[in-house]
């Protein structure tokens, strides 16, 4: 049976990007955990919401998706499609458990389902993968446009962004059916509605992995500089528009916000990735980014831990803070939690070599 990747075989850049992404995703997810409505944030909360929308919302989830695709391609090349299939099925089970027992916003199960569609495409030529990537992204854009064009300018009640005050009042047992309903609805509708976009992101990651830039970014300094420049040039205006639309509590504006979030998220994610890749080509950059690389090696553990901690802080069966915090307090809390996770990552790796979730995944997939 194929063996898992050893620490010595790991590439530094993907771990850094994964570690950075897990923090950026928390900055966005904490809105759902805390139950605040973005267009109701004013003053310092409004500034915090604006900065999260411009700098983080849609960017790091795009980074994570591209890394997922790259990891799948590298995994198949190294150990074969059978191992990757077991990994996807294990993530599906883990995601369903996470979504029904901890937090309805789980993304692991969706990644696993779309990953099953990706799997046969990993053996296709790069040209075919590029065609499917463009088609997937294009269909995602068309899907949103069909809803946004002519949509009514009626007030949004907040339910469309996951705000549900029942989470702040329910006991754990009482929240189970509510969470299961929300999770299964998100899993089915999200996979059908946005699955092609996610597949496109996966395939971008596959194509990036094929270039070799993830393993040796120093060979690609000029393409990386060009990617960073173009990504910032296109991504910054798109994300400013997104932040403005996301501050408007109207149904049609929220649909247009979703479109600009996707497009701006992808372009700025590529810029972020290129800038980080350039940074790791220097010894000083690698030294400064090593803590993030450590966090990236524990990304699955950190992701699940964030759900446990945040639901215990905000939900009714914990501290019951749901709906009581504004965006600024949520951002500060997320940054503090992430800082603790980064600080603990090096300790955990030195002591155990991997996190508990990573150990479980490898145990199931590789049998040892």
Please provide a written account of the structure.
The protein has 368 residues and is mainly α. It has one domain. It has helices at 12-34, 43-55, 59-79, 81-101, 108-118, 126-148, 166-169, 172-211, 221-245, 251-279, 283-297, 299-314, 327-352, 356-366.
Quick overview of this protein structure:
With 368 residues, the chain is mainly α.
Which key terms come to mind for this protein?
368 residues, mainly alpha, 14 helices
The proportion of residues forming helix, as a percent range, comes to: over 70%
Low-pLDDT runs of 5+ residues are none
Q: State the shape.
A: globular
Per DSSP E runs of 2 or more residues, the count of β-strands stands at: 0
Number of domains: 1
H/E element order? HHHHHHHHHHHHHH
Helices and strands in order:
Blueprint: H1 12-34, H2 43-55, H3 59-79, H4 81-101, H5 108-118, H6 126-148, H7 166-169, H8 172-211, H9 221-245, H10 251-279, H11 283-297, H12 299-314, H13 327-352, H14 356-366
